């Protein structure tokens, strides 16, 4: 460890102050042995019995990246094992999340005798009970928090597996199930890796190994399904999270324009022309998602002209599938909690995002009239009846005055501009994957020496070129930043980005925040 590059050592010291633990992040991990837990043995035995009895199994998935990948893994694996199976992912806008009685009824009418959920199921007791009344067997594979006993024949969940599996996503659980059956492939591993990145899992233990090994296989094989969805010739967890994951999530978000089940069919397809054609359609839908999101953010921003402690924006024309993206974007711009709502079939659908330090769930928890409600500290989704809107609005406006919170200070690593170059950023590959539990820190370039400043799109974006040659991009800058073009800068905070052009790699700096010299404040 004496010969570690200086930036690598600086990041290790920042993330893990105890050098004796550095090997945990520096060593490339091998996959842990297959689970031999009681619950996994039950899964294997039940699948063996189903195969012997010629059972027909429906795989019930979810519409986000993790759910799509989990469905693909389970479908591929069970077919290789010799099981007669099909799959179904619900329509996000018409059916919503999770396993529904309507899906059970549909499956039974088509001759399915068993249900296996992937990336959902622990909150579906009504549907699971209904399946039991129809004589159907039920297996739940999920990673979401268990709040009550799950009414199924077999439950495969990180809480019931060995400790090394505790950070698995839904596709990670599906992958371990297929490994236990002895029919896993490198493609399954790649799917689990992409899903683990997409679901922002803690990058430790088996999840870390899955991401490392999966990306290694992706780059070695240039796997057609995934590389047809991206631009870079070499992938890491960052490029996957920006280039592949949003495209898969876009289909579920725009379920009024596309069927997310077709994305699973895309990953099951083996015809090269069909794969490329379908990838173009996915790309087009993602562009549509970007247009809708940009339009919604611009419109919502016009309604934020007053300085408020919390912003509640409602518009019947807003697309339900984009609410989370738009509220997240506004929250980042305003550094305030934001709720964006739309009216859908006599109820309001809403998404809330908040800065670090403001707990959405805590703030909303005492409101009594939610139809649906879920999320975590910085993100929540919920629905209320149409007649409850004014009541909810009053609750928000009153309670924000009593809710105490403060913005958590951003943790940054101070660097000089000469430390950010292609060689130093490439040296960080020995620490990848970065992610939850081991994040790539925000860099703060102190006293940057600026050679030139150039505005793009009429001042929407700004490009700074430093004396070192480093390009620093400030996208969607605020009006305040726009007006401070000539004000001296004391530091810039942000993250690095590797880009490819004509097979040449370069490093850019993506600005999150600019700090101006005190004298000119």
Structural description of this entry:
This protein has 521 residues and is of the alpha/beta class. It has 19 helices and 17 strands. A seven-stranded mixed beta sheet has the order 11-12-16-17-15-14-13. A hairpin with a 4-residue loop joins strand 13 and strand 14. Helix 4 packs antiparallel against helix 8 and helix 7 runs antiparallel to helix 8. The longest helix is centred in the middle third of the chain and has 31 residues. The mean pLDDT is 94.
Total helical elements: 19
Q: Shape, please?
A: globular
**Hey, roughly how much beta strand do the residues contain?**
15-25%
Average pLDDT: 94
Spatial ordering of strands, largest sheet: 11-12-16-17-15-14-13
Computed over alpha carbons, the radius of gyration is 24 Å
Please give the number of β-strands: 17
The helix content is 25-40%
Roughly how many Å apart are the termini?
A: 44 Å
Kindly name the structural category: alpha/beta
The main β sheet shows up as:
7 strands, mixed
What ranges have pLDDT less than 50 throughout 5 or more consecutive residues? none
């Amino acid at each position: 460890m004496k010969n570690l590059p200086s930036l690598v050592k600086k990041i290790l010291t920042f993330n893990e102050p105890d050098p004796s633990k550095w090997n945990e992040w520096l060593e490339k991990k091998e996959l842990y042995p297959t689970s031999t837990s009681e619950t996994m043995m039950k899964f294997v035995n039940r699948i063996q019995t189903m195969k012997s009895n010629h059972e027909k199994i429906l795989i019930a998935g979810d519409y986000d990246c993790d759910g799509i990948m989990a469905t693909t893994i389970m479908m591929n694996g069970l077919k290789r094992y010799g099981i007669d199976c099909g799959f179904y992912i619900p329509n996000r806008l018409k059916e919503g999340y999770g396993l529904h009685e309507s899906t059970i009824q549909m499956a039974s009418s088509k001759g399915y005798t068993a249900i296996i959920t992937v990336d959902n199921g622990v909150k579906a007791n009504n549907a699971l009970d209904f399946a039991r009344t129809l004589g159907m067997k039920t297996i739940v594979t999920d990673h979401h928090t268990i709040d009550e006993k799950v009414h199924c024949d077999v439950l495969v969940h990180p809480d019931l597996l060995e400790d090394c599996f505790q950070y698995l996503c839904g596709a990670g659980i599906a992958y371990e199930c297929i490994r236990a059956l002895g029919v896993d492939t490198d493609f399954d591993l790649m799917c689990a890796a992409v899903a683990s990145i997409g679901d922002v899992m803690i990058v430790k233990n088996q999840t870390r190994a899955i991401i490392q090994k999966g990306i290694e296989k992706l780059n070695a094989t240039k796997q057609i399904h995934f590389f047809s969805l991206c631009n870079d010739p070499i992938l890491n967890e960052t490029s996957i999270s920006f280039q592949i994951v949003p495209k898969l999530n876009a289909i579920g978000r725009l379920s009024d324009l596309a069927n997310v089940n077709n994305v699973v069919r895309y990953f099951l397809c083996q015809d090269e022309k069909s794969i490329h054609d379908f990838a173009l359609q996915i790309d087009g839908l993602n562009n549509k998602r970007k247009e809708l999101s940009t339009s919604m953010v611009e419109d919502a921003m016009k309604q934020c002209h007053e300085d408020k402690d919390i912003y509640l924006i409602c518009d019947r024309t807003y697309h339900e599938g984009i609410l989370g993206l738009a509220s997240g974007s506004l929250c980042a711009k305003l550094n305030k909690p934001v709720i964006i709502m739309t009216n859908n079939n006599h109820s309001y659908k809403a998404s809330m995002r908040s800065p670090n330090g403001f707990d959405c769930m805590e703030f909303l928890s005492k409101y009594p009239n939610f139809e649906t409600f879920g999320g975590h500290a910085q993100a929540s989704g919920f629905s209320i009846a149409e007649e409850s809107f004014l009541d909810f609005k009053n609750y928000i406006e009153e309670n924000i005055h009593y809710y105490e919170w403060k913005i958590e200070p951003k943790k940054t690593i101070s660097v000089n501009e000469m430390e950010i170059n292609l060689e130093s950023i490439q040296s960080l590959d020995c620490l990848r994957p970065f992610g939850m539990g081991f994040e790539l820190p925000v860099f703060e370039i102190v006293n940057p020496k600026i050679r030139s400043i150039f505005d793009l799109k009429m001042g929407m974006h700004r490009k700074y070129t430093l004396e070192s040659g480093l390009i620093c991009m400030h996208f969607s800058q605020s009006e305040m930043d726009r007006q401070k073009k000539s004000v001296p800068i004391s530091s810039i905070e942000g993250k690095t980005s590797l880009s490819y052009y004509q097979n040449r790699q370069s490093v850019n700096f993506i600005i999150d925040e600019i700090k101006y010299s005190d004298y000119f404040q």
